[in-house]
Amino acid sequence: MLLDRREGCGCPAFWPNVYATVEYGKASRSPNTVVKVLRTLGMARMWAGVLGRDLDHDLRQGNFLSIEDVESLADFLCLTAVGQVEWAARAARTHTSRPERQRVVRLEDARPDPRRLERSVPPVTNPAEIATRVRWVASYVEWQLGMRLGSLDRQQRASENLKKLGEAVVARLRQRAPRSSHGSDDEPTLEGVDRDVLQRIDQAMLPGAKQNPFTPGFVQVRNYLIWRLLLDTGARRAEVREAKADHVKYSTRRFEIHTSKTIPRTVPINPKTADAFDRFMEDFWSKLSQNARRRGFLFTDGRGAHLSLRAINRIFERLREKDSNIPDFLAPHTVRRSWNDQFSATVDSLPPEKRPSVTEEVRIRNRLQGWRGESSMGARYAKRHIRRKSDEIAETLANDLALDSGKND
């Protein structure tokens, strides 16, 4: 829930919370998405507040943003949290430093020109995040526009003018969203690693292996179990980190993912992973302090403190440092992408009578990865496999055409 921090109120911000509930409050929606939407709307409200305005009040009254406002707001959404605070501080100084009796001809004259502000503030490094923020704000403005128009007499000329202005603002906001590369079949951002690389890592991670870069005993066995859970399930780093001892079922070979930014689920694991879990529990976890075992987290340091996400990242950093043949982009999420590659290859290898339909394949993948049934994420993660298959078919076709050409000669 987004709170209104103006004047120390601390009350729920009514319209943003209504919007998030109506548009994103469905059971199939990720709670994490709702949080991000509200955080983004909070940024927009912060921008307006610095300029002495109430964003929700303006939108509800039909005082929609000007094109100058759109540009300023879009620039603000491009900044990091630190950058937004610095921008707000400079903007507030600029806004309050004007002479009290200065005659204002245009409303824009009373607002700080973002072009005059320092540009040393670091922008958000991920264009996809910027695009998402801008689109969420545009959708919120569009929603407020629809609410406002619904309360007016549609025969009134004012309603028509308001609609044109609001639609122009929404369109301009969406134009400011950076284009994402996800639409390209050749985009490299969701690359996994090949099967031989996964096998190489698995051998290096085996407890007791000569090439294992970690301290023998507790650390090696724990890290191997982390690796195996990621490899078997394609789970996210945070999902594995939040696992508790009773979430892994040795007898049924299942991993229950209770904490997820999308949908909790239960997924199968390999017998090899089940054995790694059994060894870790018997030889090490059961010997942790009583307090650590009471908290129940499966992955801790040697003193029983819950392992951090950064510590899991360091496992993969250490592997990359140890073996130059491991790609530089190897990270926990790379294993998730690799899982999706292997899933696609497994489906393709099935005989036609056992192969699921395209719709069923999408549903199966989405369930195992924690996406909603209609989510398009599965298609994005399958792009690498589809690209490989298309290249193989094209190469075969090119060879066949070359042979046919030789015969004709």
From TrEMBL:
Pfam families: Phage_integrase. It comes from the Bacteria. CDD domains: DNA_BRE_C (cd00397). Coiled coil: none annotated. Residues 188-398 form the Tyr recombinase domain. InterPro entries: DNA_brk_join_enz (IPR011010), Integrase-like_cat_sf (IPR013762), Integrase_catalytic (IPR002104). The keyword Transferase does not apply. SUPFAM superfamilies: DNA breaking-rejoining enzymes. Keywords: DNA recombination. This is Site-specific integrase. The lineage of its organism: Bacteria, Pseudomonadati, Pseudomonadota, Alphaproteobacteria, Acetobacterales.
